[in-house]
Design goal:
Elements (H helix, E strand, L loop, with lengths): L8 E4 L3 E8 L3 E5 L6 H4 L4 E5 L3 E5 L4
Antiparallel strand pairs: 1-2, 1-5, 2-3, 3-4
Length: 62
């Protein structure tokens, strides 16, 4: 399992996407305002995602 790094774009939970702001031991903190439809979703700006629950779409190495 590849762990995301700060600045990576990840996808989780049925297509939601965000930018990784902090990497913890078992999870990442993701900023969801990256999504174009963020305002329509009525969600918090940030969320915590376990490393097992996301996939990296864009990394700093691409």
């Amino acid at each position: 399992m590849k762990i995301a790094e700060v600045g990576n774009v990840v996808e989780f939970k049925d297509g939601l996407q965000g930018i990784v702001e902090k990497v913890n031991e078992n999870s990442v903190i993701v900023n969801l305002t990256f999504m174009e439809n963020f305002n329509e979703l009525e969600m918090e700006e940030k969320t915590v995602i376990n490393h097992k629950r996301y996939k990296i779409l864009y990394s700093n190495e691409d």
